[in-house]
Amino acid sequence: MEEILFNGNSVASRTKSVKPNVHVENIKSKTKIYSSYFIQQLKKPSHAYNQGESEFTSSLVSIILFTALITLSLFLFSNNLNWSDSPGFLSFFMESFLLTFFIIGLVIFSSFLISSFFGPQYSFKVIISFYGGQLSAPIVLVTVSIFLMLVKSFSYGNAILTISLVFSLFILPLYIISFLLTKKPSGVDPLYGFVLYIATFTVLMILFVTIVGNSKMIEYFNNLNHLF
Fold this sequence. Notes:
single chain, 228 residues, mainly alpha, 0% strand
C-alpha cells in the first residue's frame, strides 16, 4: 500500500514538474513566431500592408520593444549628460517609457483619423499593424545606438538614436499616410493629407502636453533636444 502511495506521489510530482515546460514551450513558440515576423519585416517592411490585422500582436510587440529600447538609450544619454546628478533608472525609465509610448500612440491615432476621414477607413488595429510593421529597422538602429553608448561612443550612438527617432516619429507616419491616401484615389491628395496629418498630430500633441503637464514634458523634450 505504501509503495502504491509512493508511486502515486511520484507520478504527481512528475506531472507538476512537466507543467512549467508547457509554458516554456509556449514562450519559445511565440518568440519564434515574432523572430520570423521581425526578420520578414526587416527584409521587406511593406509586407505589413498585405497582412493587415492578422499581425497585430507582433506589431504591438515591435512598438513596445521599440519604445523600451528608445527609453533605455535616452537613459544612457541622459546619464552621460548629467553624470554628476544622474537620474534614478526605474523612475526615469517608467516615466520616459509612458511618455514615448503615448507620443507614438498619438502618431498612430492621427494616422487613423486621416485614414478614417480621407482614406480607405482601415481599423485602428490595422493602422497599428502598419506602423509596427515598419519598426524592425529602427529597432536594429536603436540597439546599435545602445551598444555604442555602452562602449562610451556617445557621439555615434546619439547620431544613430536621433536618426531612429526622426524616422519613426516624423518620416514613417508620412510614408504610411501616403500609402493610405493612394489606396483611395478619389480621396484627398497626398500632399494635403500630409498637411492634415501634421495639423492633427500638432493639435493632439498640444492637448496631450496640457493634460500631462508642462514640467514633465519640458524635462522630456529637454532630453530629446540635446540629441539634435
